[in-house]
Recover the amino acids of this structure.
């Protein structure tokens, strides 16, 4: 039977899930350094307990460890995300007003995202940036798919209200 | 509109009608813009290869349990192995037999644990167990030795020809190829040969040449001749005399036109080769030449 203790299996689990663990912690706390540390801690724990954790359980194991790591320990910081440059060559002739509007919109979006409750922001970004399906996020967070849908709905609602200044 | 329709819209799970209804709503444009904008968001860079390498370097190969526990465990393992080895070798060494060997032209004395003495003639070897000496006084002998045995329990000398058992006595055992002689100088010696026991009182000898027991005269003196640096023979075939000569002087003896089964009576000095050669050649009416470590004996004037 395959075992996480085997180097190639462990490496595979790491490569498949480490980025999501990193993002997950980053969306929660907005701290890149802590997110890197969380990846290390979570996978060291997985390695130390490799005999007890099956490869199928390894994924939720590392999320749980990472999640519990900073629970109530660190204060959430502002989550700073990059906005992929939407202004390509074909749009260099956009008016300065438009560019200004774009910039303002991004700032508003950033603020709106940071204003979201932590669980809504994490769920929303895992879906929007990492393309995680609601079911996957539900598994990671240990809640129902419906709860994730609720978070997504509320997140979208809050974001629009925040941006539109309602 | 169904519950959480915004989530359903994002995941593309709205029905045709619901989607149409949503699109007609006044807030749709805002949501569409939000959807577009958030699809362009990216998280900070994360290099999983690098992170894995860091994990292996900092944590797995040097994981706390590895650094703190393992070297000590390893040390313990090594220490235990060494202790075991030392103990085992101590017991092994203590059961190992003592061995004393002499080469050609060499003599040696061995003092046994009970103060019995062994004098080893040239090219001889005795082996005994120091540890079990008190319970079993046994000597394995190859070659020739003179024994002065302290009073005590049974003392045996084992040879490939036979066994000599004694009780407080002085005797000489010569155990060479095809030649076995036991001479008792004091006390009583019992010689076992082919399951036959022969009692040797002081002043008698037991001689065996090529498996034949030969009557031999009484030994002269109270010590074997070799103890006084002489090799003495009485009616002994020449080949054994030459063999003894080789042993005493570490030389090679060759013969030409000589019947080495002829019996020889006489003795030679063990310290002066020239005298020894004359002591043999004169009574046996032979001649000899020396070439380094080689001596050639030949009959009469047959050399040239």
């Amino acid at each position: 039977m395959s075992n996480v203790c085997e180097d190639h299996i462990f490496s595979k689990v790491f490569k498949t899930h480490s980025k999501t663990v990193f993002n997950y912690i980053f969306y929660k706390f907005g701290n890149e350094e802590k997110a890197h540390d969380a990846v290390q801690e979570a996978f060291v724990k997985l390695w130390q307990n490799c005999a007890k954790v099956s490869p199928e359980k390894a994924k939720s194991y590392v999320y749980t460890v990472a999640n519990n790591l900073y629970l109530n320990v660190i204060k959430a910081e502002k989550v700073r995300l990059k906005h992929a440059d939407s202004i390509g060559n074909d749009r260099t002739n956009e008016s300065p007003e438009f560019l200004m509007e774009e910039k303002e919109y991004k700032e508003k979006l950033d603020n709106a995202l940071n204003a979201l409750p932590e669980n809504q922001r994490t769920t929303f970004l895992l879906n929007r940036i990492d393309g995680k399906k609601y079911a996957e996020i539900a598994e990671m967070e240990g809640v129902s798919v419906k709860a994730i849908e609720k978070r997504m709905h509320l997140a979208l609602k809050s974001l629009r209200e925040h941006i539109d200044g309602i | 509109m169904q519950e959480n329709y915004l989530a359903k819209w994002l995941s593309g799970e709205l029905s045709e009608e619901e989607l149409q209804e949503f699109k007609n709503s006044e807030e749709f444009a805002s949501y569409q813009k939000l959807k577009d904008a958030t699809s362009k968001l990216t998280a900070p860079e994360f290099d999983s290869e690098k992170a894995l390498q860091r994990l292996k370097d900092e944590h797995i190969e040097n994981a706390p349990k590895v650094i703190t526990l393992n070297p000590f465990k390893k040390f313990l393992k090594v220490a235990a192995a060494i202790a075991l080895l030392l103990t085992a070798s101590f017991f092994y060494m203590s059961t190992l037999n003592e061995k004393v060997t002499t080469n050609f032209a060499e003599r040696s004395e061995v003092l046994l644990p009970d103060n019995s003495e062994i004098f080893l003639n040239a090219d001889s070897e005795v082996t005994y167990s120091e540890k079990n000496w008190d319970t079993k006084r046994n000597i394995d002998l190859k070659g020739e030795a003179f024994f002065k045995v302290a009073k005590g329990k049974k003392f045996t000398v084992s040879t490939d020809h036979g066994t000599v058992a004694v009780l407080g006595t002085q005797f000489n055992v010569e155990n060479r190829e095809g030649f076995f002689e036991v001479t008792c100088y004091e006390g009583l010696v019992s010689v076992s040969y082919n399951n036959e026991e022969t009692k040797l009182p002081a002043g008698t000898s037991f001689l065996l040449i090529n498996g034949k027991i030969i009557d031999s005269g009484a030994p002269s003196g109270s010590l074997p001749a070799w103890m006084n640096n002489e090799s003495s023979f009485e009616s002994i075939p020449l080949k054994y005399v030459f063999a003894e000569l080789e042993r005493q002087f570490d030389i090679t003896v060759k013969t030409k036109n000589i019947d080495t089964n002829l019996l020889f009576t006489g003795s030679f000095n063990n310290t002066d080769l020239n005298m020894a050669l004359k002591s043999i050649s004169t009574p046996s009416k032979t001649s000899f030449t020396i070439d380094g470590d080689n001596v050639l004996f030949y009959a009469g004037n047959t050399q040239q």
User: Anything to note?
Assistant: Residues 7-69 of chain A form one domain. Chain A has a mean pLDDT of 84. Chain A has two domains: 7-69, 92-164. Chain A touches chain B through 48 residues (CB under 8 Å).
